[in-house]
Each structure stands twice: as structure tokens, then as C-alpha cells.
Amino acid sequence: MQARVSDLLPVEYFHVVFTLPATIAKIALQNKAAVYDLLFKASSRTLLTIAADPKHLGATIGMTSVLHSWGSALTHHPHVHIIVPGGGLSPCGKHWIACRPGFFLPVRVVSRLFRRLFLEGLMALHRSGNLAFSGQLAHLTSPDIFKTHLAPLRKTAWVVYAKPPFGGPGAVLAYLSRYTHRVAIPNSRLVSADAETVAFRWKDYRIRNRNRQKVMRLETGEFIRRFLTHVLPPGFHRIRHTGFLANGIRRARLETIRLLLAAEAQDDQEASDDKTGPPDEQSSSLTCPECGGSMVVIDAFERGKTPKSRSPPWRTAA
Q: CATH number, domain at 83?
């Protein structure tokens, strides 16, 4: 977490969550390395592609992605949390392009592109023989059956959740410190455990009021099975950095972005200082919001004071 402090930028940060449908989650359970890797690649490519589109942001963004495979009840629920700075580098690399305050990218557009990229990637994995199936999914070995199995998913909406922006870089760091290295269930949620049963607290998100907290009691063997479901393949990285935050270029890109942000802040300050000059110096930059013509400052007075000029200037006859 201390290493991540130096990566934080003085900009708004956004939090986007990509979730795999239940049908795909079953395939992922038997092909963790391949499908989880595809989840990382499809979600990051989706954001990079849409953000680069001039219709949306027109910039190269950076992101940190964190894989979670569990739900509150230790069920298999693969999804990836992505933390994104609110803006990116222009195509020429000489300007910082900021997002609109409180808005990152259109969720519906993001969801559709993610669905297409993921399904294309999954089909490619199947054609290359990188997916294995057993038990109830053994029939998916057939290319035709696999294609038919995925067909309904091309028409359903995939869940992409854009959470409210973080309260600032400090909130981003607090989130990362809590959730990046956690396991499926922390010790604090355990209520009791013995040879027969394990009880733990969980949240039922189907309930919308505050009484979501419940206690689940499972047979010890079932609890162990659910817990082991979330063990990742050896060497698998569940935290990844993409875009201008990619490991090979992160330091140089962050240094460039900080210089650009500092220059923009200085320009804004100078523009603000210019507006505090005498009224006559400002008049040439003032335009009428109705007709677009130049506006002339008639009088200036302090807050709470009465202006000296009691009548408007004469209008020039047309």
C-alpha cells in the first residue's frame, strides 16, 4: 500500500465492477486460469477502447484491476473491481483530458462491448483447446454444443456496475488496503467452528434495507469446499495494472501526467488572477449570453454596498 501512494494522482477516481454471468462462472470454475485471465483482458480492453473513442473521452487511461471470485456467502461469483483515474493522456501525449465531474463512461456502451469481447475470447479459447470440461459440463467439449450454449448470453445484459466516484485519492488507498489482499472470508466474520459445522456472518444483498446481516451455518465439509473454490492457480496474479499504469511505463507516465496537471493548475490560477484586475481590463472578454455581443462594465461595488450608477446606459439606436 505504501508503494501505491506514489501512484495516486490529484484527480477524481472511479470504481467499475465487471461480473461474469452464472453460466460463464460454471465454466470458469473448471478453467480458472484461462477464464479469469480473459476476464482481466476483456474488461481492461473494454475501458481502454471506449475511453480512446473521441465520442467519449478521446484519451489513453490507466487502471488497477483486482479479481474477486466470491460472494458474501462464499459462493462462486467471479468479478473484477477496477479503479480508474478520471481522465487520460491525449493521443499526442502532451495534454491531460479530464472526465466530466462525476461521470466516467456510459455503462450501457461498456457492458455491450465487454460482452462481445469476452464471448469472442471464450470462443477463441475453446477453438484453441485451452478449455477443459468434466462432470455436468463434459458435453461442452463439442464446438457446436458450446456455441449453442453461449448463444443466449449474446442477447442478455451483462452486469457492469459503475459505483459513485471515490471521495479522493485517500479513499482509493483505503479501499485498496482493505480489499486487494483479502481472502474469501476474514476471521472477523467467523462466529463458531467445530467438527460438524461452521457459522459465519454474511450479507444478503437481495434485502434492500439495513437488515442484510445474517448468520449462515454450514456443514464443515461444505464450508471447506466453498473456501477452496476461491484458491487461485499457482502463480496467478489477481492484481493487474493496465494503460498508463502498466508496470513497464507507469513511472514515466505518472511523472508526465503530474507535470501536465501542475501546468494546467498554474494556467487556471493565472486566469483566475487576471479576472481580479480592474473592470476595464476584463470588459473585452465579457460577452452577452443572449446576443453574443461585447459587454461593458458600468460600475463595480463591494458586497452589500449600493452601486453608484442607478440607471442603465443608453441603448444605441439601430
A: 3.40.1310
Residues 70 and 163 in one domain: yes
Helices (H), the chain: 2-5, 22-30, 32-52, 107-127, 143-150, 169-179, 220-228, 250-274, 279-282
- Buried b / exposed e across 4-30, counting CB within 10 Å, b at 16+? beebbbebbbbbbbbbbbeebbbbbeb
Contact 14, 172 (CB under 8 A): no
| Same domain (yes/no): 159, 134 | yes
Question: Is 312 within a domain?
Answer: no
**Mean pLDDT computed over every residue of the chain:** 85
Compute the distance between CA of residue 21 and CA of residue 307 in angstroms, rounded to an integer.
66
Encode pLDDT of 65-80 as tens digits: 999 999 889 999 999 9
Q: How far apart are CA 140 and CA 191, in angstroms?
A: 40
CA nearest neighbour of 118 among 25, 246, 201: 25
Question: What whole-number distance in Å separates Cα of residue 223 and Cα of residue 216?
Answer: 10
Full-model pTM: 0.80
CA 121, 126, 131, 135 torsion-angle sign: positive
Nearest Cα residue to 68 out of 238, 203, 315: 238
Query: What is residue 166's predicted lDDT score, i.e. its pLDDT?
Result: 80
Question: Which of 3-7, 45-49, 126-130, 279-283 bottoms out in mean pLDDT, i.e. has the lowest?
Answer: 279-283
C-alpha cell at 115: 460482452
Return all residues near 5 (Cβ < 8 A) that are at least 6 apart: 173
What confidence tens digit (pLDDT) does each residue in 237-270 have? Answer: 999 999 999 988 988 999 999 999 987 766 666 5
**Nearest 5°: phi and psi at 186?**
-80, 160
Nine-digit cell string for 180: 486487494
Same domain, 65 and 193: no
State how many domains the chain has: 2
Which domain range does residue 197 map to?
A: 189-228
